[in-house]
Amino acid sequence: MENIDLLIFAGLLLLGLVAGTIAENKHFGDLKRREKKVKSLNVINFGAHEPLPEAHEATLVVGSVVIASDFFRFYLASILSLLGGNIGVYETLIERGRREAILRLKEKAIALGARQVLNLRLETSNLNGEQNKGGGVQVEVIAYGTAIR
Amino acid sequence: MILTTLEGVPGRTIVRHYGIVQGSTVRAKNIGKDILAGFKNLVGGELSGYTDLLQEARQEAINRMVKEASHTGANAVVNIRFATSAIAAGAAEIFAYGTAVYVE
Hints:
heterodimer, A: alpha+beta, Translation Initiation Factor IF3, 4 strands
């Protein structure tokens, strides 16, 4: 009985490793392609002492994504966190989430006919709550700002 | 209602301040989505069910904030900020707040 459990666990790890790596590479390729398309829209953050730019219309735009790590990377990260230092597998996860959220915001702003996005803010939150019983990390990344026309 | 993350509304001037307005909502994940997300968690990637769920919740929070602002007589909310916190496993609070103002 124990052998079967171990086999399932190993199978899930392998599934996570293979499918997770494929999904990650695909996502990075997709991000690169879509980021080129929205390059023309610039995003500016500025302080309270600068005058507001001229615009006809200002609208709140939000882009968000919930992204999860795979089974393999979740266990790899729990081993790595015992040793301390960089946890690269989560760095790429958050990077994907953040880039995706910003992309979605920009795509929405472009759809609205925006010229610029001002005061972009990023927020990251963990959806797992206090106790994480295993099976992966879920993070929500939101990007929000003001699109002006 | 004009909503911005800026200190003011471009092209307009703020005439009156009405103070902070806020809207929040607590959402739990539903079981069907939870099971699907559980499977998706094995291979990683986007959990689009949750993305939609939280987006819906955020819209609700914005709506409540706007409602509060319109009660005070404001026609814009500036300096909007969002916050999300997981208050328990499976439930998240989405919170939106900003300053209600009257612009001309």
